[in-house]
């Protein structure tokens, strides 16, 4: 059985409803993870997604952040916080269990610059995520970690690695933090399937014609635990939504898995 999961930083869900609904209709993923909703729970367009045939688990926040998982089947469990005793005011984490598989959707802090406190907050987020995975799950479980992870892992994952080395989202400390999370037992399924392919998921609004010139970064990722990663059939970014008028600065990324290899139903 083919099972498709996708991620999309929409940069304001109410501004991107048309492309999101069109993408759902065209691709019919089993789950679509959204980040940067920029709306409170009361303003989340739940009815529109229900009409499209999707359940929605979400955690909103006024004007900033916000995460959601849309799914064709109803989640059996939903988690909204790390639950580690630290403040969790920012809506950056949601996890749902679908058909026995956990999907962890994160909107990792951008970090601003390595000199600012926001950068340390970003590194702390990765540390909390690693501790949460350690305490809540097992690497032997089928689990997907996805979302806007806000790190380009390798030089191939951004348009100018020499000039941008040491900048936010391509800094050695971020690479170490991301690698520590992955070392828990997660595989970057795009890079596993396409070790030498340059493919981006984000093109900065601030750079003139960044999308047309392909001045991009691969910041949106789909990781999976080993047994699930070995069942991955394909993983790709779909650049079409980024080429529209008034798009998000990110574009969807999807992966398809053969669940029969797991013995899942």
TrEMBL record:
Which cofactors, by name? Answer: Mg(2+); Mn(2+)
Some GO term, biological process aspect, for this entry: which one? Answer: DNA repair
CDD domains found in the cross-reference section: ExoIII-like_AP-endo
EC no.? 3.1.11.2
Q: What positions constitute the catalytic site?
A: 107, 148, 250
Site, Important for catalytic activity: residue positions: 220
In chain numbering, where does the site feature Transition state stabilizer fall? 150
Known Pfam families for this protein? Exo_endo_phos (PF03372)
Under what name is this protein listed? Exodeoxyribonuclease III
Q: What is the protein's species of origin?
A: Syntrophobacter fumaroxidans (strain DSM 10017 / MPOB)
